[in-house]
Amino acid sequence: MLQSLLLVAWRNGNSIVRSARFATDYVQLVAFTQPILTDLPTTGVNSTHWRWVYRCQNCITWPTTTGGTNSIPISAFGAPAWTFSSVAVDEPANPNSTFQEHTDFGFYGFDFSSAHVDSASYAYWASGGTGPTGTPTTTTTTTSTSTSSTPTATATPYDYIVVGAGPGGLITADRLSEAGKKVLLLERGGPATWETGGTYGPTWAAGYNLTKFDIPGLFGTFFIHLDHFFNLPFILETMFTDSNPFWWCKDITVFAGCLLGGGTTINGGLYWVPPDSDFATSSGWPASWSNHISYTNKMLARLPSTDAPSTDGKRYLEQSASVAAQLLNYQGYRQLNINDSPDDKEHVYGYSSFDFIGGKRGGPVATYFQSAKVRPNFTFRQYSYVQNLVRNGSQILGVQTNDTSLGPNGVIPLNPNGRVVLSAGSFGTPRVLFRSGIGPTDMITLAQNDATAGPRLPPQSQWINLPVGYNVSDNPSINLVFTHPSIDAYENWAQVWSNPRPADASQYLANFSGVLAASSPRLNFWRALPGTDGKTRWVQGTVRPGAASVNTAYPYNASQIFTITLYLSNITSRGRIGVDAAMTARPLVNPWFSDPVDKVVLIQAINELVLNVKNIPGLSLITPDNTTTVTDYVNDYDPASLGSNHWVGSASIGSVVDENAKVLNTDNLFIVDASIIPQLPMGNPHGMLMSMAEQAVARILVLAGGP
Q1: Could you read off the pLDDT of 98-146 as tens digits, one per residue?
Q2: HSE-up of 353 (CA within 13 Å, CB side)?
Q3: In whole angstroms, what is the distance from residue 67 CA to residue 65 CA?
Q4: Which one-letter DSSP state was computed for residue 40?
């Protein structure tokens, strides 16, 4: 939340202590005197709760320490953030007290454009009034006395309703519409790239029909210090300094993309052809899924990979790859084109491969969505949030949305024999199931107690008890930071949004070539390591210029740092995700190192990697440095920093869905997203997930009983 206005408050006895603060760096917040805070009469404290109701003047625009200004998007949709700490402040009576970092945080969406009122109403509320002012603006009408502002819509039924326009939903909707089915694709977020209607881009690219999501080099600007969730080297980048981070889901406590393309629109674009083991029975898949090649080839025919995404065919900013290759060569690694040999992952390395097209972000939005949207039997609606299924026992009748233009009370029906496909992601899909009476009883009970979700649940006799939210895994990952005199850290990618190197910006705008035609990864490597439990685990390494969270007792040259992140897959640790009483999706049990063997193997991998650092002239490991051991470094690693945001398994095939991706004990409900993947793939899940979607939708189409 750097360079953003922050309002903090806490209870002190029978009063509320509050102040405005400002974050200049990842240090203690400083007092901010520009805002004028006024407590309104409904502020109060009782024996169990406290409430602060306030007026904030001079809070719309504020200066930053970098010489610019930030502001609330008063004429648009925004994403305010909230934070909470369970640790008391140091001096409760002092408005400027110091305090520790928050212990929880989240976002919520808000349409600031709807907050404007007339001066009389503002004055009434600013003086402490609540409810209507008594003098509402009148609208003359002679034809209606209805109190509804939205006309009742006539619902259009569909053969297939696909919920969520991430990779699973886009591929599913494209293939279903290609087969002639009448398809409705619903996405809760909005557009992203320019060709989908997005307009949010850097000022240096104005006039070039490019958004933040089009330019691969801006990948890091979606995040800032996200080693807490992505374990990537995103130093001083603009996820939280951006005044309008609309791309995040505001009701999920981990970072999930709520926009067209989902995670494939905001990730680094690493794109690996899945090896056979990703779909093996040993990875939890039914035997019928093992022959994935034809589906993987269908994916590659639509979306080839490239390890040289610049349109001139050259690779840029490769110093970190060269140094890392020297280190790996000492350990017997071989260089190859990774996607040419997907099953060869033992002691190999190669240039990072991406799904970028023509120097711009590719993915399913640039391919599958483009072919689907021109078909007359395909309908796409954005900003349409599916809250629950409408069902009668095992039969799904339609979906309940927030969009009353699609049907009475937002309900969209199915045609006879129609089907619903959930593709809302590893957190979104379970929440829809819980709110529809499908899942563990404790989660459905939380939905039952919710004022909105409860009345829409089917009767308890129709609840379907399935282990939704269990068997969840995510790659544990550890960052190692090095320095070498040959490295160009590229200002840690901190300037690419607002002030990139002029020559690089000009080159990119001229022909989509150069540094900005790729995201930050430069080299990847793999190796297998056996555990004491007899199970083989796989380590993936990703090399990037720049670094995050440098922690060393020694001076270092920040312009010469690079990061190697080690990810562990084929793990045995599992967690659980669910919802809280506010229907916010969140991890309930963290999935990292619940099996201690996973940690032992990752520590072994790190020790082996750094063993030959001394053999590379000029190479130094600075995080961890020689004041700590690798074992202590991993043991002391913040558990919240271990994740990679590669969540899979929350609706696993075999326990929640059958081999045709149909939800057990239902007639016409399917899931096609990362939640059905029973075990983490060998690499980043992007490519494997898309291959899975190709196979799943093919199975759905040939399954008897459909439209």
Answers
A1: 887 676 655 555 667 667 877 777 777 777 766 554 433 333 222 222 2
A2: 23
A3: 5
A4: -
The catalytic residues are 646
Question: CA-to-CA distance for 603 and 391, rounded, in angstroms?
Answer: 49
C-alpha to C-alpha distance for 135 and 700, rounded to whole angstroms: 57
Q: Can you give the pLDDT at residue 72? A: 83
Say how far apart CA 83 and CA 107 lie, in whole Å: 9
Count CB atoms within 10 A of the CB of residue 668: 22
CA distances in angstroms from 110 to 25, 114, 408, listed in the order given: 26, 9, 24
Specify the DSSP element, H or E, that contains 19: strand 15-22
Rounded Cα distance, 699 and 113, in Å: 45
The HSE-up count of residue 406 (CA atoms within 13 Å, CB side) is: 25
In 440-575, beta strands by DSSP E: 477-483, 523-530, 536-545, 561-569
Please tell me the distance from the alpha carbon of residue 50 to that of residue 520, in angstroms, as a whole number. Answer: 45
Query: Could you give the C-alpha distances from 377 to 165, 372, 656, in angstroms and in order?
Result: 17, 9, 30
User: At 196, is the secondary structure helix, strand, or coil?
Assistant: helix
Query: What are the tens digits of pLDDT across the range 113-122?
Result: 667 877 777 7
Those residues with Cβ within 8 angstroms of residue 209's Cβ, 6 or more apart along the chain or in another chain: 194
Q: Using CA atoms, how far apart are residues 426 and 253, in angstroms rounded to an integer?
A: 12
Do strands 477-483 and 523-530 pair parallel, antiparallel, or not at all (unpaired)?
Answer: unpaired
**How far is Cα 484 from Cα 488, in angstroms, rounded to an integer?**
9
480 forms beta bridges with 564
CA–CA separation, 674 vs 423, rounded Å?
8
Question: What's the predicted TM-score (pTM) here?
Answer: 0.81
- What separation, in Å, do the N-terminal and C-terminal C-alpha atoms of the chain show? 49
DSSP string, 359-413: TB--HHHHTHHHHHTTSTTEEEEES--EEEEEEETTEEEEEEES-TTSSGGGEEE
* pLDDT tens figures, 212-261: 999 999 986 554 433 333 333 334 344 334 556 788 898 999 989 999 99
Amino acid at 391: R
Residues with Cβ within 8 Å of residue 334, at least 6 apart in sequence: 347, 348, 349
The pair phi, psi for residue 112, each rounded to 5°, is -65, -25
β-strand partners of 575:
472
